Amino acid sequence: MTIRLGSITSVVASTPDAAREILQRNDEACSGRTVPDAVTGMATHDAAVLWISANEEWRTIRKALNSYLTHQHKLDTLCDLRQNVVEGMLDFLRESGRKKDLFLAGTETSSNTTEWAMTELLLNPDMFSRVREEVSTTIGKDGKIQETNILDLPYLHAVIKETMRLHLSVPLLAPHKTETEVKLGKYVVPKDTRILINAWSMARDPMYWENPLMFWPERFLGNELDYKGHHFEFIPFGSGRRMCPGIPLAHRVVSLMVASFVYHFEWKLPHTREEMDMNDIFGLTLLRATPLVATPIPLK
Ligand code: HEM
């Protein structure tokens, strides 16, 4: 679909086939970026790798990022630091024990995903118990959750994937731009056209998903469906050369936070499922419209 947003011609891809045509078959030609005015206003926008053109500088930064973010042993070296941060957060919750606006809305995609995962788990006690049971099988003598032990837990992973399917943090990915004239399907698209990939609509399209609006992590058990950019109906991190380089880190951080919140606390919601505001608000990222508020009850 082509639309004009103000003076900018934009192409919107809303099907997995269209997304594959753009991000896989014509990845290089579609790897530019258009920078929204809201971002241009920020003094540092041209320093952010998300917004720079796919040039030599970008290639160098991506190489460095890939080297740090995708090698498991490099991520392992900072494992203790992350565990300490999460431990500090748990201590804070144990000590205060009061109702807390725990997951303050920010632009941070990992915390937003954690907040949505907790929202769904608190609304689905059976799933909450199943995650806790699974996490408890990995607990060592020190009673602590080790990041490296929870990375391969199938149900926890399914819960996180399902959260990313139903509550995409970056619903239209970051806007791409054509670097040259390019043929997409049967259409010739001029250079400098903005491309929006509607990952949100693909992730809830009944053509590809059974009961698409239902939170049902079991759909991810026993199959290879993942978010690494090969299954185009499910691309919360994008695909191709501009795909998010932070997937392994995001997976670790979100897994550790969700596992810790579920294992160490009971939670009490101040309202019923019907009263819960399940809306989100859209900037570049999609956040809970009302931050999750729940009371942590420490377990002895
Ligand atoms: C749940 C967590 C996260 C989600 C859902 C997410 C999602 C995304 C998406 C959709 C894009 C744009 C892809 C495209 O335009 O095709 C992106 C880009 C990017 N992400 Fe993430 N991200 C997450 C966490 C992280 C983390 C933890 C890091 C770094 C440590 C990170 C670093 C980046 C960078 C540097 C880019 C720009 C890549 C480029 O333009 O070449 N992200 N992310």
Tell me about the largest β-sheet: 5 strands, mixed
What order do the strands of the largest sheet run in, or round the barrel if closed?
1-2-7-4-3
Global mean pLDDT: 88
Second rung of CATH, namely the architecture: Orthogonal Bundle
Q: Could you give me the name of the CATH homologous superfamily? A: Cytochrome P450
Silhouette: globular
Give the % helix. 25-40%
CATH class: Mainly Alpha
Small ligands present: protoporphyrin IX containing FE
Low-confidence stretches: 100-107
Taking Cα atoms only, what radius of gyration do you get, to the nearest Å? 20 Å
- Secondary structure tally, helices: 11
Name some characteristics of this structure.
300 residues; alpha+beta; Cytochrome p450; five-stranded mixed beta sheet; two-stranded antiparallel ribbon; 11 strands; 39% helix; 13% strand; globular; binds protoporphyrin IX containing FE
Tell me about this structure.
By secondary structure, the chain is α+β, with helices and mostly antiparallel strands. 39% of the residues lie in helices and 13% in strands. It is built from 11 helices and 11 strands. The chain has helices spanning 16-25, 37-40, 56-69, 72-77, 79-96, 109-123, 125-136, 147-150, 154-166, 199-202, 247-264; strands at 2-5, 8-13, 32-33, 176-177, 182-184, 187-189, 194-197, 265-268, 280-282, 286-288, 295-298. The strands form 4 sheets. It has a 5-stranded mixed beta sheet with strand order 1-2-7-4-3. A two-stranded antiparallel sheet has the order 5-6. Helix 5 runs parallel beside helix 11 (247-264). The longest helix has 18 residues, at 79-96. Residues 100-107 have low confidence and may be disordered. Bound molecules: protoporphyrin IX containing FE. Protoporphyrin IX containing FE is lined by residues 49-50, 62, 65, 69, 109-110, 113, 169-170, 173-174, 236-238, 242-246, 249-250.
